[in-house]
Design a protein that fits this description.
- Strands 8, 14, 18, 19, 20, 21, 22 and 23 form an 8-stranded mixed β-sheet that branches.
- A hairpin with a 4-residue loop joins strand 11 and strand 12.
- Among the domains are: 114 residues, 2-Layer Sandwich (Herpes Virus-1), CATH 3.30.40.10; 100 residues, no CATH class.
- The longest helix has 18 residues.
- The protein is an alpha+beta fold and 487 residues long.
- Helix 2 runs parallel beside helix 5 and helix 7 crosses helix 11.
- It has 16 helices and 23 strands.
- It is found in: Nucleus.
- Pfam families: UCH, zf-UBP.
- Its main location: nucleus.
- One of its GO terms (cellular component) is nucleus.
- Belongs to the peptidase C19 family. UBP8 subfamily.
């Protein structure tokens, strides 16, 4: 338990004033402008890394560094009180401990709730245990000792008979930070019944149970996802049975059911976007522009998407990258003479071009490399073209704003907005298919804490280096936004 710190009291007025400014501008930004400020400034001045669990800011000067590199700064300046740029906790370098102060905590909680209110999330409240809570806590004698080697959130899954396709998707979902935070803070309010009830058929509740098993269980035994399989069979009839299924097909079916079950008891008003956790994380918007080749009139439609399926070409290229596939995806193409459109301006059917661009990027981007195709003989064929994918990717070149600006349609203001915005994503999970179309097996790589990679092959988990991940074939690629900002 953090203790009272006398070093805070010595310069309390200055430290609290600086803390209030820091927590409202950097830690819990209330505007897109402040979010961009956080993106630019939160980087260790020594090792220049960003994605670290304990990135801190000095409360006496603008120094930003990871906790590991704050020692020299303290020795040179005597500035001993710092604050985490992630959650706002104070830390005293002299005491070598976190600082708990009622006033500081109330400021932090208010700033966090203002931030969460802006994002449309539930508010945090101080927990005052009720008498019944106290009785439960007194009976709960089991305790866990967490060490630096404790691997919470990493657990094997038993293959129930050709269910490797499901296991890989579960493993990928469990590693998504925002989804983890959602379930472990008990934000899912089920409209079908209580979690754990035998007659509860809610897939969100079952996923919540899996998160609890991965992060709260004190066993290294593999988890048996029999109830998840049963619910998938119940809600997605085409996936029922013990034959091998496609991991991408399972992902889309699972997201669809999770989306339905995560909606509130009262459906959203017509015309309003869904605010459920699935849509917040996975839904992007795809813009389709049809251009009449005779008069130049553009007809635009915008549709939601959960994933992006990318063609791999005709197999002649031996050096293909994910960026190549995305560039081809957003490239303008002629529809041909056999697919003319009815142009409202011309009043006749005319030849046209079609272009797809990413209107709105999701927080979790899933790329489906189309490795399976049907031949003219209606036989399934696997495409084994190597596709190199990066650890980090900037999706700006494939957005609608960028593509229209590049063609001279955009304005200087749009260009400025593009420069300031961040559409950088980090690789989180890779699902691979080994074998052919007749017999195959799915396994996956997942990124866990401290950017350590693991290969998960059903119940077998092995540590891996990044180079092995990037050298794998790749079927489904999950990327998460490096810096999350909400409109």
């Amino acid at each position: 338990m953090p203790r009272k710190c006398n070093h805070l009291d010595k310069k309390r007025k200055t430290l609290v004033q600086n803390y209030e400014l820091l927590i409202s501008r950097i830690i819990y930004p209330l505007s897109s402008k402040d979010s961009q400020l956080k993106l630019r400034t939160v980087q260790c001045e020594v090792c220049e890394r960003r994605a670290l669990p304990m990135m801190c800011c000095c409360l006496m000067c603008p120094t930003v560094a990871c906790l590991e590199h704050f020692g020299p700064h303290y020795s040179q300046t005597g500035h001993g009180i710092i604050a985490s740029t992630t959650f706002g906790q104070m830390f005293c370098l002299e005491c070598k401990d976190f600082v708990y102060d009622n006033h500081i905590e109330s400021l932090r909680l208010k700033a966090e709730n203002d931030h969460r209110r802006r994002l449309g999330l539930g508010l945090r409240n101080e927990w005052n245990p009720s008498p019944s809570d106290g009785r439960i806590l007194r009976k709960a004698r089991r305790s866990y000792r967490l060490t630096i080697d404790t691997m919470r959130g990493l657990r094997g899954l038993v293959n129930l008979g050709n269910t490797c396709f499901m296991n890989c998707i579960i493993q990928s979902l469990v590693q998504i930070p925002s989804l983890r935070d959602y379930f472990l803070t008990d934000q899912h309010c089920c409209k079908f019944g209580d979690v754990g009830q035998v007659d509860n058929f809610c897939l969100m509740c079952e996923l919540a149970t899996i998160f609890q098993e991965f992060y709260n269980s004190n066993t290294e035994e593999p988890f048996i996802p029999r109830r998840m399989l049963h619910l998938v069979w119940k809600h997605a009839k085409h996936l029922a049975g013990y034959e091998q299924h496609d991991a991408h097909e399972f992902l889309i079916a699972a997201l669809n059911v999770l989306h339905q079950h995560s909606q509130s008891l009262s459906s959203p008003h017509k015309g309003h976007e869904c605010k459920c956790i699935i849509d917040k994380l996975f839904t992007g918007k795809l813009q389709s522009d049809l251009t009449c080749m005779k008069c130049g009139r553009v007809s635009t439609t915008v549709d939601p998407f959960w994933d992006i399926s990318l063609d791999l070409g005709d197999g002649t290229s031996t050096d293909r990258t994910l960026e190549d596939c995305l560039a081809n995806y957003v490239k303008s193409e002629s529809l041909g003479a056999t697919a003319k459109i009815k142009c409202e301006s011309c009043g006749s059917y005319e030849s046209a071009t079609k272009r797809l661009t990413l209107k709105k990027l999701p927080l979790v981007a899933c790329f489906h490399l189309k490795r399976f195709e049907h031949t003219l003989a209606n036989r399934r064929k696997k495409i084994r073209i190597p596709v190199r994918f990066p650890e980090q990717i900037d999706l700006t070149p494939y957005t609608t704003s960028y593509c229209t600006t590049k063609n001279g349609i955009g304005t200087y203001a749009v260009n400025e907005q593009l420069i300031e915005s961040s559409n950088v994503y980090d690789l989180l999970a890779v699902v691979n298919h080994n074998g052919n179309t007749e017999s195959g097996h799915y396994s996956c790589f997942v990124r866990h804490k401290d950017n350590q990679w693991y290969k998960v092959n059903d119940q077998i988990i092995t540590s891996q280096v990044l180079e092995s991940v990037l050298a794998s074939e790749g079927y489904l690629l999950f990327y998460t936004k490096s810096f999350i900002d909400y409109d």
